Amino acid sequence: MAEKRVYEAWKGSNSKSIIILDADLASPDSSPPSKDIGSIDIDKNCNDDDDDANSLIYPYERLKVTSTDPVADIDITKREAYLSKEEFRERFGMTRSAFYKLPKWKQNKLKMSVNLF
Description:
Low-confidence stretches: 1-27, 35-48
Mean pLDDT: 73
Distance between the termini: 53 Å
């Protein structure tokens, strides 16, 4: 029975999924096969309450719309995604998963209240 290799793929700026490809591990130098035999949506199957959703974390003071030293090269429509787990809870009073379950208009209203929109 051939073993399987797991490859990580990114969809969009924050969404990840793991693609499981049919591969023979006897030849480690071979290129990844193109036959997708399954995938797992990490956003739906992992609890982001335990981990920071984004690997890039910036202080709240640099993410605010009114910052005097703003962060460059971020998605300004998702400033909240760059907060640490602790700072996210402190600013929004809820976990990321609870926040992202809210309707978009409510997310935007909350982001405005903390100067991230």
